[in-house]
Inverse folding.
């Protein structure tokens, strides 16, 4: 495929993309000067719509795909697409867009590495601070204006260190921003990056700025037309030292992707600042800069050449002079066995509760009583893995530097591995939904083929739910741990389809319901994770899988209603409850309330009548057993029964009335919570 759409189109064009939001981002532009983004409006999957986008000189062609993905091709208004061309574009745009984004990502990665290399090569703190805003603008070219604020410890306020070329630096340097004042002071005080996506959000966040600061700001640049702002703290040893703020004055606004990029780049700048402080105090170690560059280039080359994790690991080992273990926290499959990986994750959770920093290295004794030093590999606020080595010596400055350089590269590799897994789940989920909704035998067979299901193999729909009552930072790890455990325990019996929030949707290969229950019971009795499972009926044909899936969810719902964990429930064992599954909780509660209302005694009198009726039914209408259970005389019970019959206008000797009473008591006990 060509590097641009000119292999299909012979006119200027723009290509915009929207993923799971109403905001469009331009991903390609070929000689078309119009900047305003397209207007979003609802479309069904596979629909194509033509609009003028409010522009007279161009037309917008909207191509809608699954998962709320939309591409908009902007062409000159005079250009007409043929039906064949429209069909070709509809099929080719996703692949072309993916290629463009991959190329953009590679260019961005190279640009980030170049910028990091540029700022980390500076040993003078003043030079580094002056360079920061320039490199930030290079990494995020969508920004129109950028300003770097630095905290002055003596004056206890933030000052402008440098602004981009469009801004009057000298005027802005008169500003003194207190912690908590405006967007800059807020980000400094809270230590968290923020994005302001509308003008109203920007002005609201700036409302508490002093009049003097507002006057200087207005003189330095016309900020009244600002559309969007992103702002991120730069920290050194967990303490905010600077604040980077970027402004956008065009129609398109910053979104979370630019925010994440700024945060990640700010983290790299934080490392550079920390190193700069060290270098200023230790001029004799200037030779480390050259070594750092060499290491950086070598690791980046390995990453860009897709050499893989093992090559990067071996390169790091060669540079630092000793071997280490590498653990993938999501796949548990590199150097250590899974028990070692689980052990480290649990210890990391303990250490995190003390330090509140995912990336902080820590010491831990292995199950064999060896002391190890552990460096977490962190990306996007998630622990992806660990570098582990025996703590026999103190790391030198060079060795620590190598790990600082290598861990972000390893994080990129681990992220790529995890992305591949997530993509596989998405494909599997889409195929399974097609199977559930198939209207023809051909559609059913096609979906089954994508899922690699065998016609001769009976299956049971099986849904696991995991209790995610731990620190949110570690939820993904524990979900992956349980998923990995499932695969090991059930091996060839289990066909994992996808995960959804705290649930894992699977198909279990088993000949009988007894075998299926035995396999699930084995899992729940051996795992350390709190979980439960609903099992659907046996499906011997593809068309029966949909029914089994619905039954599995109903069985799981029963366990949820009763707050039961570490148990499984087969739909066939629900018994009489199957009659009520199609009714809402409101309907059942209404029936129960209507039945018991005459004896509920809102004034407090005869409040024991409901309890009496329930225990009477539980003891099969035995007067002696009921009186004994209630600790009352039989004659007293006879009086209560008479009051109940009178109030409810029933006879407990009439079989139909007895059935209604039994049903109401059963539903009150098992279906209506706090009725």
């Amino acid at each position: 495929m060509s590097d641009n759409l000119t292999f299909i189109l012979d006119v200027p064009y723009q290509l915009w993309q929207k993923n799971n939001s109403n905001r469009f981002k331009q991903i390609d532009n070929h000689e078309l000067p119009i900047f305003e983004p397209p207007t979003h409006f609802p479309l069904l999957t596979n629909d194509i719509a033509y609009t003028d986008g409010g522009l007279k000189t161009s037309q917008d062609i909207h191509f809608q795909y699954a998962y709320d993905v939309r591409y908009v091709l902007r062409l000159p208004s005079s250009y007409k697409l043929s039906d064949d061309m429209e069909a070709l574009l509809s099929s080719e745009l996703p692949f072309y867009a993916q290629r463009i984004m991959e190329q953009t990502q590679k260019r961005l990665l190279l640009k980030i590495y170049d910028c990091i290399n540029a700022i980390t090569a500076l040993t003078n703190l003043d030079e580094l601070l002056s360079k920061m805003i320039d490199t930030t603008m290079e990494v995020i070219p969508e920004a129109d204006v950028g300003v770097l604020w630095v905290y002055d410890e003596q004056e206890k306020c933030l000052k402008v260190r440098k602004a981009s070329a469009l801004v009057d630096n000298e005027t802005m340097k008169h500003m003194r921003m207190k912690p908590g004042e405006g967007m800059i002071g807020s980000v400094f005080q809270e230590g968290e990056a923020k994005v302001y996506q509308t003008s109203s959000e920007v002005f609201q966040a700036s409302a508490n700025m002093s009049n003097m600061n507002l006057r200087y700001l207005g003189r330095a640049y016309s900020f009244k037309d600002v559309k969007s702002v992103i702002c991120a703290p730069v920290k050194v040893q967990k303490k905010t030292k600077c604040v980077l703020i970027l402004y956008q004055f065009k129609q398109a606004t910053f979104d979370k992707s630019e925010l994440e990029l700024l945060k990640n780049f700010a983290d790299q700048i934080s490392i550079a600042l920390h190193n700069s402080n060290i270098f200023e105090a230790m001029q004799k170690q200037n030779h480390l800069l050259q070594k750092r560059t060499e290491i950086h280039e070598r690791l980046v080359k390995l990453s860009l050449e897709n050499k893989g994790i093992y090559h990067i690991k071996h390169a790091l080992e060669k540079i630092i002079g000793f071997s280490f273990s590498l653990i993938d926290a999501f796949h548990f499959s590199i150097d250590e066995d899974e028990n070692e990986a689980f052990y480290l994750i649990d210890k990391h959770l303990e250490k995190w509760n003390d330090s509140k920093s995912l990336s902080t290295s820590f010491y831990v004794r292995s199950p064999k009583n060896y002391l190890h030093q552990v460096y977490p590999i962190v990306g996007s606020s998630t622990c992806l893995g660990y570098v582990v080595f025996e703590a026999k010596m103190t790391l030198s400055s060079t060795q620590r530097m190598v790990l600082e350089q290598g861990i972000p590269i390893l994080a990129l590799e681990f992220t790529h591995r995890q992305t591949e897994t997530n993509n596989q789940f998405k494909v599997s989920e889409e195929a399974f939904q097609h199977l559930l909704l198939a209207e023809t035998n051909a559609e059913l067979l096609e979906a089954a083929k994508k899922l690699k299901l065998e016609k001769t193999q009976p299956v049971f729909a099986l849904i696991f739910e995991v209790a995610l009552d731990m620190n949110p930072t570690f939820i993904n790890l524990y979900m992956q741990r349980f998923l990995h455990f499932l695969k090991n325990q059930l091996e060839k019996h289990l066909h994992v389809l996808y995960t959804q929030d705290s649930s894992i949707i699977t198909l279990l290969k088993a000949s009988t319901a007894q075998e299926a229950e035995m396999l699930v019971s084995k899992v729940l009795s051996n795992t350390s994770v709190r979980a439960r499972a609903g099992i659907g009926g046996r499906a011997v044909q593809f068309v029966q899988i949909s029914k089994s899936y619905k039954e599995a969810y109903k069985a799981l719902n029963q366990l949820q209603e009763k707050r039961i964990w570490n148990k499984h429930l087969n739909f066939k064992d629900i018994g009489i409850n199957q009659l009520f599954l199609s009714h809402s909780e409101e309907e059942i509660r209404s029936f129960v309330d209507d039945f018991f209302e005459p004896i509920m005694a809102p004034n407090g009198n005869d409040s024991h009548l409901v309890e009496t009726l329930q225990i009477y039914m539980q003891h099969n209408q035995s007067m002696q057993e009921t009186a004994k259970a209630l600790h009352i005389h039989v004659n007293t019970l006879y009086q209560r029964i008479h009051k109940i019959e009178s109030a409810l206008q029933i006879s407990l000797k009439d079989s139909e009335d007895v059935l209604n009473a039994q049903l109401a008591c059963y539903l009150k006990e098992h279906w209506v919570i706090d009725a």
User: Anything to note?
Assistant: The radius of gyration is 33 Å. The longest helix spans residues 397-437. The chain has 20 helices and 19 strands.
